[in-house]
Design a protein that fits this description.
CATH superfamily of the largest domain: inorganic pyrophosphatase (n-terminal core)
Distance between the termini: 42 Å
Strand order of the largest sheet: 3-2-1-4-5-6
Largest sheet: 6 strands, parallel
Structural class: alpha/beta
Shape: globular
CATH topology of the largest domain: inorganic pyrophosphatase (n-terminal core)
Order of helices and strands: HEHEEEHEEHHHHHEEHHEEHEEH
Strand content: 15-25%
CATH architecture of the largest domain: Alpha-Beta Complex
Number of domains: 2
Number of helices: 12
Radius of gyration: 20 Å
CATH class of the largest domain: Alpha Beta
Helix content: 25-40%
Bound molecules: adenosine monophosphate, manganese (II) ion
Number of strands: 12
């Protein structure tokens, strides 16, 4: 990534448009353990650029997760090739910090002359040459919708459906407080353009593998709630992952189960990762407790109400550190 001019300001749509128009070859990357907004954003912008006659590669460090394989255009998502790609422009999508793209993905994009950084994470330090960071947007997919329509770029069916999936998954099906009138207006426009909501929603939400339900059962057995009822947390150990032959995406969204408990203001999910690190997922229901700030204390990031950390293990050491930080923030907020 070029160190020369780290712009503190956002680029305009027109400046981004100029880069897209004036170059021919692109690599689009999103974050490790990609979610619907990550893959959806890659497909959305990728297929628009393909329809505009560009050469486009869609790279993700972890490849395409099973739960998103239904998406039209998903077959273009590749794991990083060993050799750097001959591309002019690299575009980071939905990725809060540069290392979150993964080492192999960054290596694959290392010959790019220009980096665009399009994202909605509050903690994004604007690591691109041109940045389009809108932390008021509930999903990167919604920023891309605005960009693609403003620049009058092609809007093929893959782009249309991918934007719907990106925004639906990042807003908890259009429920979270960041969902705005613009989000619903966008959704209405996507429907007018032909999105089949019933079929898409069924593929996103009613199609879980049985092992995910078994995981839920295992997680519930580890559930703990603080005496004041404000914090609920559970953990996923190596043994459960191996016993149930879990894939990383199987736990996606399960934290919403404990977030939904009455009285709980902070939900925390601890997970032992294959590499020995600990993944921490946090959700807040109270704006006064900003989980992004807590995550930043441990080198993580995210949004005020949803954030994450990857930290040093073992779980027995990581867990009390995070829970103590959460307690500090709860007390400081006067909850
Ligand atoms: P998750 O709990 O994994 O669903 O993540 C919640 C939000 O925090 C998402 O927007 C993530 O992109 C962001 N996030 C998760 N983990 C990290 C991390 N290690 N560093 C920065 N942002 C993260
Ligand atoms: Mn994401
Ligand atoms: Mn997102």
């Amino acid at each position: 990534m070029s160190e020369s001019h780290n712009l503190p300001q956002n680029a305009t749509f027109e400046q981004i448009g100029e880069v897209l128009r004036n170059h021919q070859s692109f690599v689009l990357i999103s974050h490790v353990r990609p979610d619907g907004d990550a893959i959806g954003s890659q497909i959305a912008l990728g297929y628009s650029l393909l329809a505009a006659g560009k050469s486009v590669r869609l790279i993700n460090e972890d490849g395409l997760p099973d739960n998103l394989a239904f998406m039209a255009g998903a077959e273009k998502i590749e794991r990083p090739p060993a050799e750097p790609l001959e591309v002019e422009v690299a575009i980071a999508l939905d990725t809060a910090a540069k290392p979150r793209m993964g080492d192999r993905a960054l290596h694959a994009a290392s010959k790019a002359k220009i980096w665009l950084n399009i994202d909605h994470h509050l903690s994004n330090p604007k690591y691109g040459d041109l940045n389009l960071i809108d932390s008021t947007s509930p999903a990167t997919g919604q920023i891309l919708y605005q960009l693609i329509t403003a620049l009058d770029l092609p809007f093929p069916a893959e782009t249309r459906d991918a934007i719907y999936v990106a925004v639906s998954t990042d807003t908890g099906s259009f429920q979270y407080s960041q969902t705005t009138a613009a989000t619903y207006e966008m959704a209405a426009d996507l429907l007018r353009r032909g999105v089949d909501v019933g079929t898409l929603n069924s593929k996103i939400y009613d199609n879980h593998p049985y092992r995910r339900v078994e995981l839920m059962r295992a997680l519930l057995n580890t559930l703990e709630r603080s005496p004041d009822g404000l914090v609920a947390h559970w953990d996923l150990r190596d043994k459960t992952r191996l016993d149930l032959a879990l894939l990383p995406e199987d736990s996606e969204g399960l934290i919403d189960i404990i977030r939904a408990i009455r009285g709980v203001q902070l939900a925390v999910f601890f997970e032992e990762l294959v590499d020995g690190k600990i993944r921490v997922s946090m959700r807040s229901k109270d704006r006064r407790v900003d989980v992004c700030k807590i995550a930043l204390e441990f080198g993580g990031g995210g949004h005020a109400l949803a954030a994450g950390i990857r930290m040093k293990g073992p779980l027995e050491e990581a867990k009390p550190l995070v829970l103590a930080a959460i307690r500090r923030h709860i007390e400081a907020a006067g909850l």
